[in-house]
Amino acid sequence: MEKKLDHIGIAVRNLEDSIHFYTEVLGGSLIDRYRSEAKGVESEIAIIDIKGERTELLMPTNNTTSPIARFIRQKGKGVHHVAYHVEDLEEALKELESKGIRTLEDTRRVNKHGRRLIYLNPADTEGTIIEYCDYPK
């Protein structure tokens, strides 16, 4: 199945400073900003577009339970995940299973934009957090 880079997720400590950098220094446009308190998300998210390429800035809203807060504590701020767009998430998951690649089922969800997503198990991806996503109609 064909995959295309969808976005890069960046863990940040200060969303305002990060938005300023991505818009004023890199010339991007803030296209959305929202807060998700869903279990396994617990972040404020800003989506930046730079010439058609997307970056998600992720700031934890709960320093105890947010996976972004845990990531920052363990690895510091910076690239959190790389997301790949697939045509059909269900088919892509079958393909992964046939290759022995596991997913983190508790990360499976639909975001506010209707994007279905799931994270692959970093133990099977050389340690990189990879998201698979699709945009069903």
Automatic annotation (TrEMBL):
Entry similarity comment: Belongs to the methylmalonyl-CoA epimerase family.
Source organism (scientific name): Halobacillus salinarum
PANTHER family: METHYLMALONYL-COA EPIMERASE, METHYLMALONYL-COA EPIMERASE, MITOCHONDRIAL
Keyword Nucleotide-binding carried by entry: no
Identification of the protein by name: VOC family protein
Residue ranges of domain VOC in the record: 4-135
Keywords, comma-separated and alphabetical: Metal-binding
Short name of one Pfam family: Glyoxalase_4
InterPro entries: Glyas_Bleomycin-R_OHBP_Dase (IPR029068), MeMalonyl-CoA_epimerase (IPR017515), MMCE/EMCE_epimerase (IPR051785), VOC_core (IPR037523)
Top-rank lineage group of the source organism: Bacteria
Biological classification of the source: Bacteria, Bacillati, Bacillota, Bacilli, Bacillales
